[in-house]
Design brief:
The chain is built from eight helices and eleven strands. With about 200 residues, it is of the alpha+beta class. β10 and β11 (about 180-185) form a beta hairpin. α2 (about 85-90) crosses α3 (about 95-120) and α4 (about 125-135) crosses α7.
Length: about 200
């Protein structure tokens, strides 16, 4: 039996540190977790993990160092599963190993999509497509409530907070209005024509 446990973790608590070896596989039960990297005084967001997401699986299976750190973005519940039993089951159970391979494949595809997004689009177009996806996730209400700090959103899109503000201002000509933590889509057709969403990038 694997001795796993669920921990309640406050906002902005570090869960893992890049460059260290994994002792647990972490799974977000409730809340949200930011994966990020730091170098030479700069930070960048790699991904935002939400309910049911496991991280960082590749390091656990390889028994290799974390390439990114993780901290909570909100009060969260996180399941901690010891890493060694996961590797032991992976070595002897082909069904489990296949499930792990499929999960890693999905992470790889998401990483490629994120790279395409940053390489093939301007910051303003990345923001426009994020707004379209966020609207779908929040029920197509054309009013989006930001669940992230703008600093974190900017970092996840490969932008500075200042560039995010300028991009929001540029999107006003395409029917986007912003006030505080609320973004309103007044002309979805104009926004889509500008954003040019692509299923190969956006899923």
């Amino acid at each position: 039996m694997v001795d796993a446990e669920v921990q309640r973790v406050p906002h902005h608590v570090m869960l893992i540190l890049e460059g260290t070896l994994p002792h647990f596989l972490h799974v977000v039960v409730d809340g949200s977790v930011e994966l990020f990297c730091a170098h030479d005084g700069h930070e960048t967001t790699i991904d935002i993990m939400r309910s049911s997401a496991a991280f960082i699986l590749a390091s656990v299976i390889r028994n290799d160092i974390y390439l990114s750190s993780a901290r909570t973005l909100a009060p969260s519940q996180v399941l901690l599963i010891p890493a060694k039993p996961i590797r032991d089951v992976f070595d002897r159970d082909s069904t489990f190993a296949r499930a792990i391979a499929l999960e890693l494949t999905e992470h790889h595809r998401n990483a490629v999509r994120a790279l395409m997004n940053k390489k093939l689009r301007t910051g303003t177009k990345r923001l426009a497509n994020w707004i379209l996806r966020a609207d779908v996730m929040q029920g197509n209400q054309r009013t989006i409530e930001l669940t992230l700090e703008k600093r974190t959103l900017a970092s996840s899109l490969g932008m500075t907070p200042e560039n995010l503000s300028r991009s929001l201002a540029r999107l006003s000509k395409y029917g986007v209005k912003s006030s505080g933590r609320e973004i309103v889509i007044e002309d979805s057709f104009a926004l889509e024509r500008f954003a040019k969403p692509n299923t190969l990038i956006d899923g």
